[in-house]
Design brief:
472 residues, mainly alpha, 0% strand
């Protein structure tokens, strides 16, 4: 083992010691995550500038720290399906009356679909405002091993989708084997889990109306299981600062900074579009008579977590906790909006990104982008947004789905492989903001929002306290 590699390992573990010290000094969870994110970007960037991206030492160090970064991601993936299943079942099962359920779910889905359609329009506009030419991008980037590898994977995905009709895709959401569904092996596993959880919860409601004593033990079991699963999530979330530092370090080490510079315009256009959608979210909050400033301050910790973890599913507990404890949303609405928001109408991954790539693909193919094309694209994006998994890589599947349905070439998706992770962090934060927005708006429309709690300023000072010990 070389001296340089040992030095890198010592420096890496040294920052872990710093993170541990910050925790012992009672620094907030958000402060530690942000410190890890910035520290990882700087540390990884410095390693690339000194050692480059293709050196043997860099490869060895990258492989070593992937234990921490990829291990953290795999822990999140491990808990996602159980969390979604239990959260959805419990949220439906605990609703007081079927009328309340019918008042909540359609409104949440409606907000998510409307906002994802708006985000698609914003994504389309950003391509033209930043004057992005996909043909120039393709010529500059050319081909490399990473692009070719991604192209092969995407082509197989596109072939699979093109061989299935829209009817087949819709039917694939209905699980034929719930045990296979719970393994998460299919692209539609998340939405299938949501569907089965809703059906199970609704069935429990029906039995409770007729023979409540017969089902009470099952209700207690599900509620107890929910607490256990949430406890598992809390333990995993405690590792977030350490996982984020490893992920950001590896990201900056393995992505060519000069390639990033070549695609800087697309990166800026993406972040500008995401920023505009955040502003639209705040405008919608104001439209319903609520303070956008308070909304932004209270959801910030959850957005920061999503930015670092790139998983809106992993943020479900924080999402629900923030909605119920700080925004005054009732528990049923908070649970449903947080869960629906991981697989329906994701503004960033299923809205902005596919829209931008569709316009760029049309440029490469020489297709005229007129009003008819845009309207068709927005409609396709709204429909295809159902079932997009709220984990890293979901946006790629969304883009392939949209481009396949529109009959567009997917080469541009592979070209952007080097900066996708960087964009995905902000996209995930926007997805979470959209799900929380749907909860707040739905609760306000149903008169179930505790406006006094929403406006309570003292809760802002408690944002960094773990409250339910989720981020202790």
């Amino acid at each position: 083992m070389s001296v340089i590699l040992i030095t890198l390992i010592v420096a890496f573990l040294g920052f872990y010691a710093v993170l541990s010290r910050l925790k012992s000094r009672k620094k907030s969870f958000n402060y530690r995550v942000l410190s890890a994110l910035v520290g990882g970007l700087l540390f990884g960037g410095a390693i690339q500038l000194i050692l480059g991206t293709d050196g043997e030492i860099s490869a060895q160090f990258s492989d070593l720290i992937s234990i921490f970064g990829n291990g953290y991601i795999k822990l999140l993936q491990m808990i996602v399906i159980p969390l979604v299943f239990i959260a959805m079942t419990a949220s439906i099962m605990n609703v007081e009356g079927n009328s309340a359920l019918s008042k909540i779910a359609p409104k949440i889905i409606g907000v998510l679909i409307v906002t994802v359609a708006i985000s698609a329009v914003v994504g389309i506009a950003s391509i033209y405002l930043f004057n992005i030419d996909a043909n120039s991008l393709v010529n500059v980037m050319g081909t490399n091993n990473a692009i070719e590898a991604r192209s092969d994977t995407l082509l197989s995905t596109q072939e699979l989708m093109s061989n299935n009709s829209l009817t087949s895709l819709v039917l694939s959401i209905i699980p034929t084997n719930i045990f296979e569904m719970l393994t998460g092996v299919e692209r539609t596993s998340t939405l299938s889990t949501v569907l089965f959880g809703m059906f199970l919860g609704f069935s429990v409601l029906q039995v409770r109306k007729r023979k409540p004593e017969k089902v009470q033990s099952f209700v207690d079991f599900i509620n107890a299981t929910k607490e256990v699963v949430l406890s598992m999530v809390r333990e995993i979330l405690k590792l977030t600062p350490y996982g984020v530092f490893a992920l950001m370090t590896k990201f900056m080490m393995t992505n060519d900074l000069f390639a990033l510079a070549e695609m800087g315009r697309f990166l800026m256009a993406s972040y500008a579009a995401i920023g505009v959608m955040f502003a639209i979210h705040l405008a919608l909050v104001a439209l319903f008579g609520l303070s956008p400033k308070i909304f932004a301050k209270k959801i910030w910790p959850v957005l920061l977590f999503g930015f670092g973890s790139r998983s809106s599913m992993a943020a479900i507990p924080l999402n629900v906790d923030t909605q119920t404890q700080r925004l005054g949303v009732d528990e049923e609405t908070a649970n449903m909006s947080a869960t629906f928001g991981t697989s329906i109408g994701q503004n960033g991954c299923a809205g902005i990104y596919p829209a931008m790539l569709a316009i760029m693909a049309a440029q490469v193919m020489g297709i005229t982008v007129d009003l008819s094309f845009i309207l068709q694209l927005v409609a396709v994006i709204a429909i295809a947004s159902f079932g997009i998994a709220g984990v890293g890589g979901g946006a790629t599947f969304a883009a392939v789905a949209v481009l396949t349905i529109m009959g567009l070439d997917i080469t541009v998706v592979a070209i952007l492989v080097s900066i996708e992770a960087l964009i995905d962090m902000a996209r995930t934060a926007l997805n979470i903001s959209g799900s929380m927005l749907s909860g707040v708006i739905t609760a306000k429309r149903n008169d179930s929002l505790d406006v006094e709690q929403y406006n309570a300023q003292e809760t802002l000072s408690n944002q960094d306290k773990p409250n339910n010990e989720i981020v202790a």
